[in-house]
Amino acid sequence: MPSPTNTELLNACIHCGLCLTRCPTYRETGDEAASPRGRLYLMRALEEGRLQAGPEVNPHFDSCVGCRACETACPAGVQYGSLLERVRAEHVEPSRPAGVGLRAWRKIVRDVLPDARRLSLAAIPGRLTKRLLVRRGRAPGWLPGGLARALELLPDGPLRPASWLPEWTPAQGPERGVVAFLPGCAGSALYASSGRAAVHLLTRAGYRVWVPPALGCCGAVHLHEGDRTGAIQRVEANLAALQGQEFEAIISHAGGCGATLHEYGSLLPERGEAQTLASKATDLASFLVRVGLPAPSPRPAVRVTWHDPCHLAHGLGVRSAPRQLLASLPNVELVELPEADWCCGGAGTYTLKQAALSDSLLNHKLDHIRSTHATQVITANPPCLMQLARGLQQQLPEVQVVHLADFLAAYHP
Fold it and tell me: CA 303 to CA 332: how far, in whole Å?
């Protein structure tokens, strides 16, 4: 079945405005053009040729954090996320004036960020520089803004390339089945321990874990940057990497990757294997809740709160599974975070390109974290981890942010 056209997707909107109250950028600006409804009007005008993409129009799309909270609120089922990706690819990005800066940025986005090995190598000098210059999450004011922010966001880690997961990890105890695991690009290069923890949890649940060596970036980076062609190439490469082995599910421990895996069927609607893979995609928390884990080991009492990654909550509709897992642990007090599913302002490269709006969203989140009196914030998406870590180091250094897989693995040694 062919994918619906942009016009068909746009026609689903009934202009009710219920999305406005859930839109982070509309709340910050009060500008209709910075709301889902306003952006949909602009999309329609672009599609009908009544408007041309350019400096007057593009900032309204650039300011969208892409959290898809509007989809959760929409009674008509408008596929806003898909429309935003298409409009960026078909109108916004082609209209940008070519220049050295844009070419360099696209090179980074398309050739470094989605490549775990290149990203891992690039992180080494970055981490060394961060150790020398960044204090309490703040880079010195004399550094250029983009570089300073990138250093603040870069996770701490060893000054060596990341270690990669083995292709096969056997189940612990009787084997219940085989699952594939997608480590992700930032997950592999910057949060390798979280990937190892996720695989460990899957083996503790009785599954043999397959990590195909050729399995790479899911394509999320490309989609969000308006490179639909690059995303489809990643889909095709991953489909090829997963051939020749039966598996029950393909597991992601990153909300953004999981949401993109679910879109494989719509990105390649003519490919049956893309539909099959999308149907097998699930996030780590949902899978563990479904199959169960052994009884957890006790640990000292701790007060935690859960931050919903946008694409996990709004893209996949996964909310209860992480909370169930956390609430099941001994001596863990789980405190609900106000506005837990509102964007923290991380959103991939958004925090680098829209610094002011990103910081406003982050400050809302930090205020809510402060109100919980939690000592740890648990979440499950690399951009959220980076954004929250930066904010906590600057404003609440006594609070840590921890990936869900790392937190759970400590209770299932």
Answer: 6
Cα distance between residue 115 and residue 107, in whole Å: 12
Tell me how far CA of residue 91 lies from CA of 12, 85, 164, 377, in angstroms: 20, 10, 38, 38
Q: Which amino acid is located at 32 in the chain?
A: E
| pLDDT digits 0-9 by tens, 340-373 | 999 999 998 999 999 999 999 999 999 999 999 9
Question: Which token pair is 293?
Answer: 């884990």
CB atoms within 10 A of CB 321: 20
What is the pTM assigned to this prediction? 0.95
DSSP state, residue 180: E
> How many residues appear in the chain?
413
Question: What burial class does residue 208 get, using C-beta atoms within 10 Å of its C-beta: 0-12 exposed, 13-18 middle, 19+ buried?
Answer: middle
Do the Cβ atoms of 348 and 221 come closer than 8 Å? yes
The separation between CA 394 and the C-alpha centre of its own chain, rounded to angstroms, equals 22
Confidence at residue 1, expressed as pLDDT on a 0 to 100 scale: 61
pLDDT tens by residue, 95-113: 998 888 888 888 998 899 9
